[in-house]
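Sample entry was shown:
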Amino acid sequence: MSFDILQEKILAFENPTVVGLDPLPDYVPAHIMDKHITEKGETLEAAADAYAEYNRALIDALCDIVPAVKPQSAYYELLGHAGVRALKETADYAKSRGMYVIGDVKRGDIGSTAEAYSAAYLGDVTIGGRALAPFDFDAVTVNGYLGSDGIRPFLDTCKARDKAIFVLVKTSNPSSAELQDQPVGGRKLYDVVGDLIAELSKDTLGRYGFTRAGAVVGATYPEELAALRRRLPSTFFLVPGYGAQGGSAQDVAGAFDGKGRGAVINSSRAIICAWKKTNNNGYDFADAARREALNMRDALRRAARFN
């Protein structure tokens, strides 16, 4: 089961980190971007090629210490079709280096549209007589606030393809409380969503005791994070908000169960843009990212007990 694969990688590295590969043109060191602009001009294609080169080097620098990466699709869609190609190339390369790949797509819709999203990111599409996987992510993020008919198609694909999903429950952004904290029949709305995904996926428990439907719960709300861990003992957590958004290792400690399992903590800018603090014009971007990832790993090891 897909979260078993992720948990095993985390245990092997003793590192519950996922790195968000979320590039923007000014996140890419100038010597990389300029090279591709020289080849293809000031074009979206040049920027996409720079993204792909940048990501490959980051993956090479991190793959022996970090178990997973999470490319956020919006950063690639920003460059149109060329950016989507770079997203696919990035995911394929990360998988070739043994990393677990979470497609941060936050898709949510109903009926046949949800089925199409699920097939695109987790499943396959039949062309003639061939079944082809467009993206083949190991897991994706899903917006579950449309209800169960926006979640079930993804779960069906997960069961068929040994994949997993992370459903938005309590997100890290400051305005999440405007909706997610509203009372609904004695529960907060985010509790209602958490309970729903636990019920929908209760028949998908894996070897480590987690279902195929995980939850996105932000590091910027540590009390709610700890309460949700107690409420959802069989739900694997994806925890954004560490690092640049202000979350610390102490803040995310409540995401783990008593064995230090059941959560993966995301950091994006703090790692991929670490080179901006070294005053070397980005020539050391991969080494800077590795150092920052090691610092994060060590902090998380102190926050969680692995066994």
Observations:
- The mean pLDDT is 95.
- Residues 44-62 form the longest helix (19 residues).
